[in-house]
Design goal:
The complex is a heterodimer of chains A (about 120) and B (about 110).
Chain A: E1 4-7, E2 10-14, E3 19-25, E4 31-37, E5 44-49, E6 55-58, E7 61-65, E8 71-76, E9 85-92, E10 103-105, E11 109-114
Parallel strand pairs in A: 2-11
Antiparallel strand pairs in A: 1-3, 3-8, 4-5, 4-9, 6-7, 7-8, 9-10, 9-11
Chain B: E1 4-7, E2 10-13, E3 19-25, E4 31-38, E5 42-49, E6 56-57, E7 65-67, E8 73-78, E9 87-94, E10 103-104, E11 108-112
Parallel strand pairs in B: 2-11
Antiparallel strand pairs in B: 1-3, 3-8, 4-5, 4-9, 5-6, 7-8, 9-10, 9-11
Classes of the chains: A mainly beta (about 120), B mainly beta (about 110).
């Protein structure tokens, strides 16, 4: 099956710093999604990207769909303590054979923000 | 607007016991999924359903069974729990159209001793 390589696995940053994380794949995806998981909760969708080259922002978050359709990155500007959590990338094929449009998830980037 | 509700939130089982995890969604979504999350492993798909009365195996289906008798509910069963099934289980749902992300429940933390 498809695999997503997400990096870094964890990050410790000072409040106010910018953060960057990325995902790469050996497969081509038609959709890239970025989720955040707060401790004790389920992942929540942050940004969805639908076209190669697309750059989308959501407040202090910016994500891009790589031109090759095999990668995506997420940037967080001016980090704050509530940015703490695990960030997951996910790629979606248009059709995965079973009609399920399954998501393939990266293993996550654990972000810690030092006040 | 409840979204996706999982019950129970926590459970401790003894090896060999059985249990059922319930997932309920009120968004009229066609697709539903069960994932398990383990440290350093990300989210791994156990089983999924593309509609009422249908189920299919995901990446790690062994030791689990599922049923989707009603569109809004997706049940995950463990017939004989093993310590390797200690994990956090997440249910998710999505609408049938393309280009929509999943909505996740808040998880069930299961410990098998």
């Amino acid at each position: 099956g498809q695999q997503l390589n997400q990096s870094p696995q964890s990050m410790f940053i000072q409040e106010g710093e910018d953060v960057s994380m990325n995902c790469t794949s050996s497969s081509i995806f038609n959709t890239w999604l970025w989720y955040k998981q707060d401790p004790g909760e389920g992942p929540v969708l942050l940004i969805a990207l639908y076209k190669a080259g697309e750059l989308t922002s959501n407040g202090r978050l910016t994500a891009q769909f790589g031109i090759t359709r095999k990668d995506s990155f997420l940037n967080i500007s001016a980090s704050i303590p509530s940015d703490v959590g695990i960030y997951f990338c996910a790629g979606q094929l248009r059709y995965s054979g079973a009609g399920s449009y399954q998501l393939t998830f990266g293993k996550g980037t654990k972000l810690s923000v030092i006040p | 607007n409840a979204g996706v509700t999982q019950t129970p939130k926590f459970r401790v089982l003894k090896t060999g016991q059985s249990m059922t995890l319930l997932c309920a969604q009120d968004m009229n979504h066609e697709y539903m999924y069960w994932y398990r999350q383990d440290p350093g492993m990300g989210l791994r798909l156990i089983h999924y359903s593309v509609g009422e009365g249908t189920t299919a195996k995901g990446e790690v289906p062994d030791g689990y069974n599922v049923s989707r008798l009603k569109k809004q509910n997706f049940l995950l069963g463990l017939e004989s729990a093993a310590p390797s099934q200690t994990s956090v289980y997440f249910c998710a749902s999505r609408a049938g159209s393309l280009n929509y992300g999943y909505t996740f429940g808040s998880g069930t933390r299961l410990t098998v001793v």
